[in-house]
């Protein structure tokens, strides 16, 4: 499978693409608001500039006597009353859009979302799990049930114009119906600690056929990575590779697919075979700058576990471990 | 400065006259009490929301508190409020000795309140209800987590109140001293009134603390 | 103006003694104002350095200049310092302190010793904050959201929260002093509707300070206790509620935004009236709309939680109240604009600052209407759109007004004129630099860039670079006054009592004013802004 470096995000430019049925409604409201703001801004700036020129201290234009307090208040009431009516219009419209955004329709599928420092765990109805990447079918109403394991996060997909906080101890929910096939940004929008800005992912909108294919084929891979994360600790790999102990071991986050310089001056691409070799025969290709202290796991690790750990290392992104290495929370 | 100022009471230099100073001090105290109200209000709001979320656990937990001792304490505090009001009256009527005596009584009653409060805290600590890091929380009722939350609110509310009591007792001690040394009899009336307002507020807060934590029980 | 060089008054508050003791133990509101000006300037530049580091990091998409951890500590420091140690006390504690007694014709604040105490409390709070930075900093953001701040952050949350906790008492005491002074110490004839708008602004902000700050005090106390004793009030695992924190925090912090803007509105009203040589348009509704903002400001806090999981109904109600706050603000803008009409406008540096304020406040206010529209807010919530919006209000409007006011009253405060040309350069640099810095951030927010991001996707780079470059221009606008204002203390021309021919009691006494402000208590016989 093509990993994240090949992902091409569709939402470039100032306005993110409209990729959901709700996005168009939000954008229409935004356009109306933009026109309103532009008119007011033009009026204020225009008047300030015009008055500044016309009534500058040196100008000889005749000044009318000031209008009475009554007349001034009347003018003001007209301005305030007019604005109030416009505001109430926007208020109503805004609430309308908001209610549609959060009110639950009859959804076609529900995805369980769990935010955790600093990743999104997603689970599909058939039990397929994935991290930081959400695959969804186009033109289907998708409901998200959002939870958090630790602090508050916020699930934000600009292309869908949706955002909802993930609050520990509480399930929040939002829905969307993607309308455009493509890959879109997924952000954590609520500050959640050190690697908040790395808590990013993608939403991949696929055709319905592709989605069901994906569910059967790829859901498994991601599950393996989750188990692998557990095994990575059980086998003690994390002690040196993540922990800040005396032993200095290379950081593995984001290593998959990269070019690695070796101690003998050559380089090697960190593909699956290399990772497997490094676990079973650690003394074969030593990474430049490190001592050959890692024990071999040949015979100590089952093939199934090995695959899961490799899947886990493949799933890691650069920066995934940063906090843990710099004295973060357990 | 001059001999005139010794014979006739003078306001502080920023004021025109004593009346203005009295009004300003009065108003300052009212504003201060309104901030105090918001301070307690915020914590009460937190308590109210949690009580609404876990009504049964909170009511059950409230049953573990010592109602008898606290009722006695309430009586003690109200008596101190009464003696303080009498003190204001006496000082206003220029009856200095009576005023001093009543202020002294108020201090003693305030200290009795704090002593009983301390005893109650001590009992609760022995029971294992206090959220201290070196203590194990022990509670035999239903939903202990939520009960612990109740006790934590209880300690925050009563603790904040006790702190205000301490400040109040200290303030009364100061006005007692000022009255004792007779350095400015005209200001003394004002000072006693201002401190009296504070003491009344501390009394009233206790009514709410007492109701919320002790009386709303199963 | 006459060619006569004014001679300084024989006796004024800046006369010796000049020793450290005469400043640190002074109860003169004018000297205390200076203590604040100096300490606030220090914190402003501390916050500014943090902002500089943030903008440097954001020049490129990956986290390369700083580490994530350091970046987070920088934006937290920036927020905490700017909000509590600069913006909230900025105008009330400096110019408010100096001018409110002068403007109401009083000899001093009602409680001079409390006034000095409030500066000491401010200093202690500041030292606690600096201690938290020296120990290793705090990474919760200025909002201290639970449960991150109460359970998960590994930084020095308690000292920082205690610093803010302590400084809150300073805010309360300043507010208490200003409210009491305005109520009880007005000169004969100075009725409520004859008060200068500056007094109205500071009076209403003081109401907010005394009523809202204690809620912050309570919530910070809870955070500290929660961290030290693990109370569980904000911990869902123990039955607590992390959202409760947000309600309490924003109940304070939304009015806090008005604490920053209301005195700025007062400053600008004074400057505009003076340099148009005209009474303010619709004075009464100016004053009443300030009070309306105070009232509705207390009811709009929930708009910070539109996506946090509060109910749809709550969201709708808070959206409504937010629109309600916008109406009095719009009235004020209308009045300022109309005040220019039929005037004799002089484009002095303070006036340029005031006009910048008008433009920036309008942009900030309109984008506030965007975020009040709840359906739109969901998209821009917690993005750079919000960052840009509140910087337009809190920096664009408030700091501009602060500088404008400082220039306008500089002759009164120091007895010296500032160099006009340099001041105009600074004012223009500020306006241009500000827009270059923050306008791109609106676009970033619409494009979807979340706030508090140390690294970001590549497509956001262009706008981020623009913003960082604009910050360079903005810095010129801030640094210039730091040079020429102190210079003018020594080399500036002597200022006459009333260099702007302005109305207002503060201009009727000498520059600088005598220790007790007025030789005789003034009597007021006419309305404010009695120009022509």
Short description:
By secondary structure, chain A is an alpha+beta fold. Chain A is 38% helix and 19% strand.
Describe the structure using short key phrases.
heterotrimer; A: 330 residues; Cytochrome Bc1 Complex, Chain D, domain 2; five-stranded mixed β-sheet; 7 helices; 38% helix; B: Four Helix Bundle (Hemerythrin (Met), subunit A); disordered N terminus
Secondary structure elements and pairings:
The complex is a heterotrimer of chains A (330), B (218) and C (532).
Chain A: H1 21-54, H2 69-102, E1 109-116, E2 119-123, E3 129-131, E4 133-137, E5 142-148, E6 153-157, E7 162-166, E8 172-176, E9 182-188, E10 201-206, H3 208-234, H4 237-241, E11 259-261, E12 267-269, H5 272-280, H6 303-315, H7 322-325
Parallel strand pairs in A: 1-5, 4-10
Antiparallel strand pairs in A: 1-2, 2-3, 5-8, 6-7, 6-9, 9-10, 11-12
Chain B: H1 3-7, H2 18-53, H3 55-62, H4 67-92, H5 96-127, H6 144-181, H7 185-215
Helix pairs in contact in B: 2-3, 2-6, 2-7, 3-6, 4-5, 4-7, 5-6, 6-7
Chain C: H1 20-24, H2 29-57, H3 68-104, H4 112-135, H5 148-152, H6 157-184, H7 197-229, H8 242-276, H9 283-297, H10 312-340, H11 349-372, H12 374-380, H13 384-414, H14 420-447, H15 461-491
Helix pairs in contact in C: 2-3, 2-4, 3-6, 3-7, 3-8, 3-13, 4-6, 6-7, 7-8, 7-9, 8-9, 8-10, 8-11, 8-13, 9-10, 10-11, 11-13, 11-14, 13-14, 14-15
């Amino acid at each position: 499978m093509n990993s994240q470096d090949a992902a091409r995000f569709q939402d470039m430019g100032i306005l993110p693409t409209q990729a959901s049925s709700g996005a168009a409604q939000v954008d229409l409201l935004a356009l109306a608001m933009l026109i309103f703001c532009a008119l007011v801004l033009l009026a204020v700036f225009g008047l300030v500039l015009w008055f500044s020129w016309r009534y500058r201290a040196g100008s000889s234009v005749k000044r009318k006597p000031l209008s009475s307090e009554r007349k001034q208040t009347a003018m003001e009431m007209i301005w305030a009353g007019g604005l109030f009516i416009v505001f109430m219009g926007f208020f109503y419209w805004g609430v309308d859009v908001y209610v549609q955004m959060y009110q639950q329709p009859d959804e076609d599928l529900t995805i369980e979302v769990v935010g955790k420092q600093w990743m999104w765990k997603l689970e599909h109805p058939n039990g397929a799990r994935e991290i930081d990447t959400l695959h969804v079918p186009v033109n289907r109403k998708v409901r998200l049930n959002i939870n958090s394991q630790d602090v508050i996060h916020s699930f934000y997909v600009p292309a869908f114009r949706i955002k909802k906080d993930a609050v520990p101890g509480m399930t929040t929910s939002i829905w969307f119906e993607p309308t455009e096939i493509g890959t879109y940004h997924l952000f954590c929008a609520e500050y959640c600690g050190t690697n908040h800005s790395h808590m990013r992912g993608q939403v991949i909108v696929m055709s319905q056929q592709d989605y069901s294919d994906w569910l059967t084929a790829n859901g498994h891979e991601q599950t393996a990575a989750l188990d692998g994360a557990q095994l990575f600790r059980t086998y003690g790999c994390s002690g040196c590779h993540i922990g800040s102990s005396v032993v200095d071991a290379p950081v593995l986050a984001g290593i998959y697919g990269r070019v690695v310089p070796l101690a003998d001056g050559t380089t090697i691409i960190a593909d699956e075979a290399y990772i497997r070799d490094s676990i079973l025969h650690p003394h074969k290709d030593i990474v430049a700058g490190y001592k050959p202290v890692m024990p071999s796991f040949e015979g100590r690790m089952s093939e199934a576990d090995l695959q899961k750990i490799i899947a886990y290392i493949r799933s890691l992104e650069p920066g995934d471990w940063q906090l843990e290495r710099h004295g973060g929370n357990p | 400065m001059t001999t005139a100022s010794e014979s006739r009471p003078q306001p502080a230099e920023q004021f025109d006259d004593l009346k203005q100073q009295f009004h300003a001090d009065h108003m300052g105290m009212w504003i201060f009490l309104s901030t105090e109200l918001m301070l307690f209000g915020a914590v009460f709001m937190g308590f109210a929301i949690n009580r609404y979320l876990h009504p049964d656990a909170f009511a059950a937990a409230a049953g573990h508190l010592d109602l008898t001792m606290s009722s006695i304490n309430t009586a003690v505090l109200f008596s101190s409020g009464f003696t303080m009001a009498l003190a204001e009256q006496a000082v206003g009527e220029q009856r200095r000795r009576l005023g001093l005596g009543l202020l002294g009584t108020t201090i003693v009653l305030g200290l009795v309140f704090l002593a009983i409060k301390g005893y109650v805290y001590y009992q609760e600590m022995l029971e294992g209800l206090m959220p201290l890091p070196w203590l194990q929380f022990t509670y035999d009722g239903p939903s202990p987590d939520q009960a612990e939350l109740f006790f934590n609110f209880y300690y925050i509310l009563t603790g904040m109140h006790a702190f205000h009591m301490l400040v109040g007792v200290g303030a009364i001690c100061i006005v007692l001293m000022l009255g004792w040394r007779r350095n400015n009899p005209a200001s003394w009336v004002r000072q006693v009134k201002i401190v009296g307002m504070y003491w009344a507020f501390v009394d009233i807060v206790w009514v709410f603390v007492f109701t919320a934590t002790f009386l709303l029980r199963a | 103006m006459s060619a006569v060089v004014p001679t300084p008054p024989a006796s004024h508050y800046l006369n010796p003694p000049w020793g450290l003791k005469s400043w640190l133990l002074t109860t003169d509101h004018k000297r205390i104002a200076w203590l604040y000006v100096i300490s606030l300037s220090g914190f402003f530049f501390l916050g500014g350095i943090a902002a500089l580091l943030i903008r440097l990091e954001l020049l490129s998409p990956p986290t390369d200049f700083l580490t994530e951890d350091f970046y987070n500590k920088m934006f937290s420091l920036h927020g905490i310092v700017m909000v509590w140690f600069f913006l909230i006390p900025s105008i009330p504690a400096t110019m408010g302190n100096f001018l409110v007694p002068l403007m109401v014709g009083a000899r001093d604040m009602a409680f001079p010793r409390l006034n000095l105490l409030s500066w000491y409390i401010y200093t202690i709070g500041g030292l606690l904050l600096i201690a938290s930075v020296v120990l290793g900093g705090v990474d919760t953001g200025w909002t201290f959201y639970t449960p991150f701040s109460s359970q998960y952050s590994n930084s020095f949350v308690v000292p920082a929260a205690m610093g803010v906790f302590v400084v809150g008492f300073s805010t309360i005491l300043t507010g208490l002093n200003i409210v009491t002074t305005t109520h009880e110490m007005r000169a004969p004839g100075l009725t409520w509707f004859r008060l200068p708008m500056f007094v109205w602004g500071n009076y209403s902000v003081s109401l907010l300070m005394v009523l809202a700050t204690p809620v912050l005090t309570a919530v910070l106390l809870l955070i500290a206790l929660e961290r030290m004793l693990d109370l569980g009030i904000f911990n869902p695992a123990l039955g607590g509620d992390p959202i409760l924190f947000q309600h309490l925090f924003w109940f304070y912090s939304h009015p806090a935004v008005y604490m920053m803007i209301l005195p700025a509105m007062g400053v600008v009203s004074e400057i505009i009236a003076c340099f148009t040589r005209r009474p303010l348009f619709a004075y009464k509704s100016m004053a009443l709309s300030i009070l309306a903002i105070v009232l509705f400001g207390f009811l709009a806090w929930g708009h910070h939680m539109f996506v946090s999981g509060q109910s749809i109904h709550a969201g709708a109600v808070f959206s409504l109240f937010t629109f309600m706050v916008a109406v009095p603000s719009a009235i004020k803008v209308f009045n300022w604009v109309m005040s220019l009409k039929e005037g004799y406008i002089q484009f002095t540096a303070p006036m340029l600052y005031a006009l910048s304020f008008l433009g920036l406040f309008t942009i900030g206010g309109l984008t506030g209407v965007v975020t009040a529209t709840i359906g739109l807010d969901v998209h821009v919530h917690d993005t750079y759109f919000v960052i840009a919006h509140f910087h337009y209000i809190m920096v664009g409007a408030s700091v501009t007004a602060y500088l404008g006011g400082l220039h306008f009253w500089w002759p009164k405060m120091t007895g010296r004129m500032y160099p006009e040309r340099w001041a105009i350069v600074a004012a223009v640099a500020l306006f241009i630099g500000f827009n270059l810095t923050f306008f791109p951030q609106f676009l970033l927010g619409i494009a979807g860039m979340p706030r508090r991001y140390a690294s970001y996707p590549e497509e956001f780079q262009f706008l981020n670079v623009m913003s960082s470059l604009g910050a360079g221009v903005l810095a010129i606008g801030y640094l210039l006054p730091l040079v020429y204002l102190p210079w003018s203390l020594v080399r500036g021309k002597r200022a006459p009592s009333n260099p702007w021919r302005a109305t207002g009691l503060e201009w009727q006494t000498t520059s600088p004013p005598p220790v007790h402000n007025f030789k005789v208590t003034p009597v007021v016989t006419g309305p404010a802004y009695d120009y022509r």
